[in-house]
Amino acid sequence: MYPPHIFADNPFNRGEVERRDEDWIIQQSQEPHTRFLPFRNLNVLLTDDSPPELGWLSTQQAQPLPASAEWIFLGLLDGVAHFAYDLSKDAAAAEQVLDATGWHFEDCRTAGETMSGPNTGMLSQARAQLDWNLRHSFCSVCGHPTDKGRGGQVRQCPACSAQHFPRTDPVVITVVADTEGDRCLLGQSRGRLQRMRAYSALAGFMDQGECIEEAVAREVMEEAGIRVKNVRYHSSQPWPFPSSLMIGCIAEADTTNINMDNEEMTDVKWFDRSEVLKALEGRSDELTVPGPIAIAHHLIKAWAHGDMP
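User: That's the sequence. What structure does it adopt?
Assistant: C-alpha cells below.
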C-alpha cells in the first residue's frame, strides 16, 4: 500500500454503532473529557505550535455551543468522543475562542501543508462533513428544512421523510506514459493550475455508470485527444474541497499526437523524464508541478522514479 497521502490516515473510530443512539451522542457532547474542534467559514482552529496542531477544545472551553453553530460527531479516539462545530454565523463566539486560546483559524489547504498525516485525516473528515451539513439544511425533494441524525451522517426531512446522506465525488487523476516509457503527459487546466503556471496529471470527475478505467480513458481523450491502455491503480486521496476522492492511476499511451480541448485546457505537453525529475526538485525552468499536498505530485514522482504498479 502506498504511504498515506495528506488528508488521509484518519485514526478515528467513526462510531458506526454508537452514533445510532441520539441520546448517547448528546451525553458524549457533555462529558468533560470530550474534545471539540472549532471552524469558522470552514477554516479550522490551529494552535500556534511549530508545526501547528489541530486546536481541540475541552468541553468546558467549548460549551455552551451557540444555537447557530452547526456541529457533527466525528468519532472516537482512544475511547474519547470528538466533535467539530462551525461558528460562521456567530462572529462574537469565534472571537471569544481566539481570545481564550490565543490560536488562529486557518484555511484547510494551508493547514494540510504544515501538519502530519493523522491530523490532516481528521481535518479532512471534519471539513467535508461540516460542509455537507451546512449545504443540506433543506430537503432536495420538497424544500423543507431537514433535521440532523446520526451525529451528522444523515439529514432527515420531517415533511416528506426523505433521507439524505453525505456524498463523495470520485475523480480519476492519471499520469500517462508514452509507449517508450521516457515521457509523460501533463496538462495545465484553466483556473487554479493556470494561475500557478503548474502542469499536473490529467483529471476529471467520474460519470454515472462508468468504471475507473473507462473514466481514465474518457478524460484523457477529452482533454488531450490521446487514447490510453493498461490503466493501473496507484493510490487514492480524500480531497475535502468539498468532498472528492482522488483516484490516482498510471496509464500507457496508445497514441501520442495531442489534440487538446482548448476550452478546458490551456496546454498539454509531453515531458521527458529528466525534465520531470528536475521539476520535482524545483530546478526546472520549463516545468512546475504540484506540491506534495496533492496526489498529482506523488503520481508524477512515481512515474519519474519508475515506482509504478
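The chain has a mean pLDDT of 95.
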